[in-house]
Amino acid sequence: MRGIARVFLDANVLFSAAWRVGARLGALWEVSGATLVTSRYAIEEARRNLEALRPAAVARLDRLCQQLEVVEEVDMGLGLGTELAEKDVPILAAALGARCTHLLTGDHQHFGRFFGGRLRGLLVLTPSRFLEKRQPTEHGD
Predict the structure, then answer these.
(1) Which CATH superfamily is domain 5-134 in?
(2) What is the largest distance, in Å, between two alpha-carbon atoms of the chain?
(3) Contacts for 28-35 with beta carbons within 8 Å, 24 or more apart?
(4) pLDDT (tens digit, 9 = 90+) per residue, 14-63?
């Protein structure tokens, strides 16, 4: 899984990365050959949840988001052809509209059946699985 990747971060990934200083998810911001992408919709969802549960982490979220490519929502109408929850359709639409190669999410309830597979061309992974795949092997792969 080498090369250039456009990696869309779902709101729960942003939330988790901002939740705690030194979180393992911080490693996403250090992956070479990857452009991290998210949407205003995802940022606002993460911000709302942090404000309710850990307001001090909102500043950390803002700092992390400064290092992301932030895209606008894309109206793809009802043509997505998926069984996603309504709240997840804007995430998928933004990732597709931004021509991302990966969609990282921890949403096992709604995206779980897609993990490790492609959803409309996007490889859907948990952040930890993406990081495992991006680690160099002993053989220099």
Answers:
(1) 5'-nuclease (3.40.50.1010)
(2) 46
(3) 28/104, 28/127, 28/130, 28/131, 29/64, 29/67, 31/5, 31/7, 31/131, 31/134, 33/2, 33/3, 33/4, 33/5, 34/4, 34/5, 34/6, 34/7, 34/134, 35/4, 35/5, 35/6, 35/7, 35/69
(4) 999 999 888 899 999 999 999 999 999 999 999 999 999 999 999 999 99
Give every CB contact of residue 2 below 8 A, 6+ residues apart in sequence.
33, 141
Asked whether residue 9 carries a pLDDT value surpassing 80, the answer given is yes
Give the strand pairing for 102-104 and 5-9. parallel
What sign for the dihedral angle of Cα 98, 54, 29, 68? positive
